[in-house]
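Bug report (template v2)

What were you trying to do?
Predict the complex of my protein with zinc ion.

What happened?
Run completed; filing so the output is reviewed.

Input:
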Amino acid sequence: MKTLIRDAVIVTMNEQNDVIEKGSIVIDGNRLSYTGPSEWTSPGPFERTIEAGRMIAMPGMVNAHCHSPANLVRGMMPSKPLEIWRAYYRASLRDMREEDFYASALLGGMEMLKAGATTVLDHFAGNQACRFMGAGAAIQAMRDLGLRHVVSLTITDKNYEETVPLGETDSTLNDEIKRMSQSEAKATKAWIDECEAFIETFHAPEKLTTACPGPSAVQRCTDELLTSAAEIARKKNLPIHIHLAETKAQAVMGKQLYGTSLLQHLASLGLLRSNLSLAHSIWIDPADINLFAQSGATPVHNPASNLRIGSGLAPVRQFLSSGVNVALGTDGSASNDGQNMFDALRLAALIHNQAGTDFNEWVTPGHALGMATRNGARAFGLDVGVLAPGKLADLVLLRRDSSAFTPLNDVTSQLVFCENGSDVDTVIVNGEIVVEGGRVTKVDEREVLRLAEQARARLDPSIQRELVAARTMEPALAEMYFRVFGKR
Ligand SMILES: [Zn+2]
């Protein structure tokens, strides 16, 4: 099938950030065969023509870090430091079943597509009572929506209390901390086998699925698990995704365990390659910036989540000025409360421009949009994120007869600073229209909301009970937080 998109303003997001004022795009099957001035477009024939004279075309965005099970608890988690927040968030997962993981991924995926994201990395951690923790249900949801997805299975083989600097509180470990250890960790070999079986079962790019390993965090895994996961990824030519240095407590733990930064430890194990992406990368050493630049590994910036639970800010200005490939994500809805990449874009372009810093390094709209498109694509080895011939046909058309784009002064800047996703009209993934007139085409939107409501209602007694249990962990974790920052 050949499709012509005619006369749009095209934001190509190629290396030069070229914008074509009046351009056309030809889609042949699932790839782009032409992107350029309308007058040079071949005469066809085309099976489908989209008149886009009042539209802006941009590459579909790549949401480079989220957790799909979190969509059912948006708005309900406390604004508290990650270690405390995480105890509460884990409570919401304990009783989730396959159908809940499906409903949650469907809800978040629909929100992403409608706000212009066409690829998502789901760092999936669910419930060990389900096969592959329930990741298969999330994959089914994203296939049903027509959303391209990279699902990295979260693995961890250490007891929880060995992964956080609990200090003196160690001796008074409460039952809930012990229970967290038992419910999360698994033997190294068992995780490796599960990870390989997961990839074998689900990896299918033609069905929009990339399946890959996702070690939970450096300090939460033995060296054997980290190197084995990296070996699986290398052999199968897959990405690998890990949380890195999200909080100061994690960086402190890294120094205790390894005597180096968490990233330097990964480097010593040989994991630093261009297929490695590291969510957050906030509490890193200055020397780590060069390690990123030299290896081509990607830090993933999640500004809303980092602000919501006070984790700190990644050194994005220094990353960019050192040529590091920074990608952008929403993180899960339990620490962001939504899955809108326009929200992430705007924050990324605003929060690093601080008084007294070198304004030549401030984040420009072009930087932010590059992070949200081609940089995410590069991190996961996907042929998307740029509108150019040969690329996969993942793109977004936005209405420009709207407040955000009137008058149309600088389209890149207005996409970043003015748009919130409400002008997204048409979204195409792999050559297929998955959003039309602002509505998803492959599933019934009311049914998605109904499934999510139903799942949340069923889970309520368990969530309420587990939140009470999680509360007993807070004193020990709060003590750790204040001690790490020297404020006891
Ligand atoms: Zn995360």
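What did the reviewer find?
The mean pLDDT is 96. Residues 445-471 form the longest helix (27 residues).
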